[in-house]
Amino acid sequence: xxxxxxSQKPDLAKLDKIVSKYKGEKGVLISVLQEVQAExxxxxxxxxxxxxxxxxxxxxxxxxxLTFYAQFYLTPRGRNTIRVCRGTACHVRETNANLRAVxxxxxxxEGETTSDFKxxxxxxxxxxxxxxxxxxxxxxxxxxxxxxxxxxxILKQYS
Amino acid sequence: MGxxxxxxxxxxxxQSIIQETDPNKSCVRICMTGCRAYGAxxxxxxxxxxxxxxxxxxxxxxxxxxxxxxxxxAPVIVIDPQDIFYQQLTAGDVADIxxxxxxxxxxxxxxxxxxxxxxxxxxxxxxxxxxxxQTKNVLRKCGIIDxxxxxxxxxxxxxxxxxxxxxxxxxxxxxxxxxRSGLRGRGGAGFPTGRKWRLVRSAAGxxxxxxxxxxxxxxxxxxxxxxxxxxxxxxxxGMLIAAYAxxxxxxxxxxxxxxxxxxxxxKIAISQAEELGFLGKNILDSEFGxxxxxxxxxxxxxxxxxxxxxxxxxxxxxxxxxxxxFPAQSGLWGKPTNINNVETYAxxxxxxxxxxxxxxxxxxxxxxxxxxxxxxxxxxNTGLVEVPIGIPMRKVVFDIGGGIPNGRKFKAVQMGGPSxxxxxxxxxxxxxxxxxxEAIGSIMGSGGMIVIDEDTCAVDVARYFxxxxxxxxxxxxTPCRLGTKVMLDTLTRITQGEGSEGDIALLESLGEQVRDxxxxxxxxxxxxxxxxxxxYFRDEYEAHxxxxxxxxxxCDALCSYHILPDRCQGCMICLRACPTEAVKGGKRMxxxxxxxxxxxxxxxxxxxxxxxxxxxxxxxxxxPTPEEPVPVSAAMKGDLxxxxxH
Lengths: 159, 646
Description:
Oligomer: heterodimer
Largest interface: A-B, 44 and 59 residues
Radius of gyration of chain B: 28 Å
Mean pLDDT of chain B: 95
Strand content of chain B: 5-15%
Strand order of the largest sheet of chain B: 12-11-15-13-14
Number of helices of chain B: 24
Shape of chain A: elongated
Helix content of chain A: 40-55%
Low-confidence stretches of chain B: 639-646
Largest sheet of chain B: 5 strands, mixed
Distance between the termini of chain B: 68 Å
């Protein structure tokens, strides 16, 4: 995940390469956006314009798709992504207390990124690891059976 | 392995794989999917290292498998041929396992499962109650085979159903077999699979599609993930058979992007199937050809709804449209499309191989076969279980699931996630099938089973589900867009102690309207959690509204934290941990929580040493505490007057 925000300005040549791969196929808008985001870390405004032109769809349609799906980001992301699971099993095991602890320690709300771009905080509907409930994920690492007092030492490992 | 051109080639390949496999060779099966979160990769590395250090490569196979199901005991391994089950391992245990079990054949006692009920040590997987109570059909290869090794799949009759269909059955006969089996859609609605296939086959037009719905969005359900990760070829084979039956040449698998291992294993399986000739043109020397493409979801729960899913495959916002026309008539790009869920496709091979009669012997009169349930929440044996449809829920929760942890009391099972309803104690002996669950306001759904205990607030659970569906409502139709919002606001008010007389009636009438008038399944089912909790736990709603009390002591606005003066040892742990400096006190002084500063984060409760257990969370109860810190010794002598409240 490191360095995912490196390019604040999208590399348009790379973008064109991704788009040209899909040219002529139907129904590829989501796949193109996914690939662009995987490359850049988020979907910058210049990319939206470029993709709309290349795929011959309206800006509105691209923007509509981007804002409909939770997976797309319209702002740059932090180096580390924290995902607090809000699945049912986690909910009944008080995941909210952990979420509040993260929010309090980092001073951001879910969906936000710290001003130093160290962390982005998200909640997810279910990580599918209900046996770890309540669980939080940072990048690819799981932190299961979490309690609020364990949050700060965990976050420190990434600082 | 090269391309397999004919059925004979496939059969002789299978024979040679089986013959070359030494049944007495030790095999360590490590769950490498769910258990990864608990360090299965480190365990695998440790095994490989130890095996090569001792030069046992020829004697022992280390096999990376999919989910074994018993997630509560992760990481787990099973050692064949003895079927020895070790659980909750660390990499540090590996040297012992290799030295004692693999070399000498002894059991490592400390890693054996202990039945919490009887205290009995159970070294073999087939004796563990969690496994013993199950009937594995869909999951029969999951946890057994390496999902990335096609020889394993082929050795377990892989692609035998496909070859049987291509050589001996007409599309009509395939449909008839699936119809007679009684298989119903496992995605939730339970539509008869064979009938759906027949509708697509008889729809007009030459271009038809097969779609696999792998957008397992219900929080708390993970069976499709396990099947895709642990036995992906079985889904491909099910889709191939469906494609042959309905006359499709192209298929799509729509899978959640939140399941990276599932996507990875599917991609591997598809490219293997292409290389082996199970996908492509003239499969096994027949006229039939088929290709499969993967579409990754982008994070929208509503895309589990079939018409929304089709929109999403087309690259649009995933918004449902009214039916009819059903996708069977007009689906992907306006063509007749067959959509089934992952588990449904994974059922097909066993029906073809063993016959419709064999399959329909399992289950009830109207619901045949087995169903996978994911057990989670307040239950000892969190994991995946496969049982015949129609067994009593009590058996799943208590016999297989091992009951409720920490001696707490069972309250209900939430079936089918946000679309389902809760099943209280009084209905626990009900057979689990589509009809019986519907009769009590719940649904079979995808098979998510979240167990809640007396410490779970029914109103809070209802509010939780509504907050989920409200956020995931696509906004296209008014009842769902506005109805979920008003219902959520009402529930939020109730949980914050601001409920008023009439709120329950409002929720009931609004819930019924949203249920009856919404466009798609999301809206039509989202009132279920609210309506069923009102039906079975009305007293809890009333306690919140009338007494401003949360009986389960969950809803923060109605709860407060206190430090019991006769338990507090003045150890300063909670005082230091409190993020808002709300705990007053000093060394050997009874700590006191300043309620005006307390943000109810629960940190004090989680850090207070268990041997003191001095912090309590209460609702609607008075806990007498001193105004200011007093010496511990004074409180211990009982100088403070108080009634014990906990």
